[in-house]
Amino acid sequence: xxxxxxxxxxxxxxxxxxxxxxxxxxxxxxxxxxxxxxxxxxxxxxxxxxxxxxxxxxxxxxxxxxxxxxxxxxxxxxxxxxxxxxxxxxxxxxxxxxxxxxxxxxxxxxxxxxxxxxxxxxxxxxxxxxxxxxxxxxxxxxxxxxxxxxxxxxxxxxxxxxxxxxxxxxxxxxxxxxxxxxxxxxxxxxxxxxxxxxxxxxxxxxxxxxxxxxxxxxxxxxxxxxxxxxxxxxxxxxxxxxxxxxxxxxxxxxxxxxxxxxxxxxxxxxxxx
Length: 273
Description:
Elements: E1 3-4, H1 11-21, H2 23-29, E2 31-35, H3 39-45, E3 50-55, E4 69-72, H4 75-81, E5 90-95, E6 114-118, H5 124-136, E7 141-144, H6 154-160, E8 169-171, H7 179-184, E9 190-193, E10 200-201, E11 210-214, H8 223-228, E12 231-234, H9 246-264
Parallel strand pairs: 1-4, 3-4, 6-7, 6-11, 7-8, 9-11, 9-12, 10-12
Antiparallel strand pairs: 2-5, 3-5
Helix pairs in contact: 5-6, 5-9
């Protein structure tokens, strides 16, 4: 049975508006807002816990689990909720995958795979794009240091194209262990992406296992994190290029990590024939 909501004062509408704009609300409620009909099937396919769906009257919906609230709203209300300039007639509220461990601390490095750690990556679009790439290459987890954009913000969720529902994400906020403390006890090699001439060419490094550090869009990695790295790696570029965008750099480095891992196992799925 679909609810009919016509007032902006409705508690569910107020909750959706708050989740669209407030990081603290997303953390306190353990929920986040997803915008657009294309993300809903992706969330369901990945086993995400859907709390509520708000849609235009008569909207066709995929089969939803029992207990999910479904509410029909007029376009004006959906427009007030949607954080985009062109609302698509559907938003839904989803349980954060990390909701039960928000205050539990870093769970540790559970497998010898590659992890990504971001240092002050402030653009939510970059954070979401990196999550999408990490999902494509089966990264073990993503650590977000203090100063990073909220991965559950609407812009980051859109840019992740569904990866937010499956990629393990841990925020090293001020209330938790800092990124430095986590890396200090890391049993895996730590690599720092740095466009420095004395850094090692990424093609000469085995990135199949370890922690890869990626820094702020303008300033790069902080000095303490750079010193913590066991090896600094660089992507070879033309002489006119000073550096790559952080999302592009992540994609190239993760491609190399995948290639290195397949080479160690004696096969390369990227070479056909």
